[in-house]
From TrEMBL:
Gene3D superfamilies: 1.10.8.60, 3.40.50.2300, Homeodomain-like (1.10.10.60), P-loop containing nucleotide triphosphate hydrolases (3.40.50.300)
Keyword presence, Membrane: no
4-aspartylphosphate sites (modified residues): 52
InterPro entries: AAA+_ATPase, AAA_lid_NorR, CheY-like_superfamily, Homeodomain-like_sf, HTH_Fis, P-loop_NTPase, Sig_transdc_resp-reg_receiver, Sigma_54_int
Subcellular location: Cytoplasm
Domain Sigma-54 factor interaction: 135-356
Ranges of residues in domain Response regulatory: 3-117
Protein name: DNA-binding transcriptional regulator NtrC
Organism: Pseudomonas benzopyrenica
Keywords: Activator, ATP-binding, Cytoplasm, DNA-binding, Nitrogen fixation, Nucleotide-binding, Phosphoprotein, Repressor, Transcription, Transcription regulation, Two-component regulatory system
Length: 445
């Protein structure tokens, strides 16, 4: 009989998880905080751990790091009601088996328990948590991207990020750099499509003084500027074929030759990105097949914003935060209906424009009137939300609205209930069901 340890300060949630696990044949141990959980691990043989992220005393990431440092650590899945890009990436980088958002469905729990007991990973001793660029949003698609980043950040594997223009491919590259072991070294970004072909070699590989007309001084080039760190080659699908051959050689030989100079050894991690279909360009002869496979070691695809509409309002409020303004409901509805052909970049520009020109403290639909003509062709509801049951879609929207009301009210549940138009006790019931920290002290009540 496998043994499961649940570490969570919410007794009700622990009991609910324990009941489901026991039904699946698990022996269950419980601890209400991190230190108690670590003591149990020292005394008992445990096959899997469910670990809360936010607890009194040691936080979940610190407990996770200590568990993973054990000689034979059990698999750990981190649970949180407040998932973010940072804690998702860090949990996966520290060696978590998975990172789940509360409330946890029975099927998800059964799946993750089966996976954890089938896999007990090796110990790890990763560096401390860092803060960095953030991939805002909580859609299933984005969380999968965050988890993938967490798993690969400390490797040396080349990464190819794909997605439409404006989806945030450079943010993925920066997250890989800033959460990995190279974060203290340079991050250098080059847009290959923005540099004329006759200048691209010098921009990437550098040159020595006098190598050509106008070369009045030595130039390092992007590869050597990123030495020890990460080089991000954006829009690599637009790179001319002759330059592709030189990039391939640089990756194979781990060295570059400045124009007019001698070869120089490299210690650089490469992350490339493109909005092109590289496989199709290989088939048409516009992209080298050998370079494609050299880049396509770990692929990460960023879906278009219209395919992850659960991220629209969190992104909009993130972009709006510096102005101190808030979104009115009619404005939020308009943002959800818009097709966003320009993806996150278009959303950011739209919010900045509205915040600049709006006269009140609230951004209303009229402040976004410039989107109305395009919204008439917006995607229909069946394409604007992940495929799920009506109950799942309703729960997703309810959770989003409650989290937004709590954030705007500074955690004051009475004020949040007023904003939502429901009684405070009903809000307490919903908070308990959603696992949103009902046991915490409520400021202002």
């Amino acid at each position: 009989m496998p043994t499961l340890l649940i570490i969570d300060d919410d007794a009700g949630l622990r009991d609910a998880l324990a009941e489901t696990a026991a039904d699946q044949g698990y022996r269950v141990l419980q601890a209400e905080e991190g230190e108690a959980g670590l003591r149990l691990l020292a005394q008992e043989t445990v096959d899997a751990v469910l670990l809360d992220l936010r607890m009194p005393g040691l936080d979940g990431l610190e407990v996770l790091a200590r568990i993973r440092a054990l000689p034979e650590p059990p698999a750990v899945t981190v649970l949180t009601a407040f998932a973010s890009a940072g804690n998702t990436i860090e949990a996966m980088r520290l060696g978590a088996f998975d990172h789940l958002t509360k409330p946890i469905g029975r099927d998800d729990l059964i799946r993750v328990l089966a996976g954890m007991t089938a896999q007990r990973g090796p110990a790890a001793a990763p560096p401390a948590t860092v803060e960095g660029h953030t991939l805002v949003g909580g859609s299933d698609a984005l969380r999968q991207v965050q988890k993938t980043i967490g798993r690969l950040v400390d490797s040396e594997a080349t990464v190819l990020v794909t997605g439409e223009t404006g989806t945030g491919k450079e943010l993925v590259a920066r997250a890989i750099h800033e959460h990995g072991k190279r974060r203290g070294a340079p991050f250098v970004a080059v847009n290959c499509a923005a540099i004329p072909p006759d200048l691209l070699e010098s921009e990437l590989f550098g040159h020595v003084r006098g190598a050509f007309s106008g070369a009045t001084a030595n130039r390092l080039g992007a590869f050597r500027e990123a030495q020890g760190g990460t080089l991000f080659l954006d829009e690599i699908g637009d790179m001319p074929l002759p330059m592709q051959a030189k990039i391939l050689r640089a990756l194979q030989e781990r060295e570059v030759t400045p124009v007019g100079g001698a070869p120089v050894r490299l210690d650089v991690r490469l992350v490339a990105a493109t909005h092109r279909d590289l496989a199709q360009r290989v088939a048409s002869g516009d992209f080298r097949e050998d370079l494609f496979y050299r880049l396509h070691v770990v692929p990460i695809h960023l879906p278009a914003l219209r395919e992850r509409r659960a991220d629209i309002l969190p992104l909009a409020e993130h972009f709006l935060a510096p102005s101190g303004r808030v979104l009115a409901d009619d404005a939020a509805a308009l943002l959800l209906r818009h097709p966003w052909p320009g993806n996150v970049r278009e959303l950011r520009n739209a919010i900045q424009r509205a915040a600049t020109l709006a006269q009140g403290e609230r951004i209303v639909a009229a402040d976004l009137a410039f989107l109305q003509s395009e919204t008439s062709d917006a995607v229909t509801i069946d394409a604007s939300w992940p495929e799920e049951t009506l109950a799942e879609a309703t729960a997703r929207l309810e959770r989003l609205l409650i989290e937004r009301a709590l954030q705007r009210s500074g955690g004051n549940r009475a004020e949040a209930a007023r904003r939502l138009g429901i009684h405070r006790q009903l809000l307490y019931t919903k908070l308990s069901r959603l696992g949103l920290g009902v046991g915490e002290e409520d400021s202002g009540i």
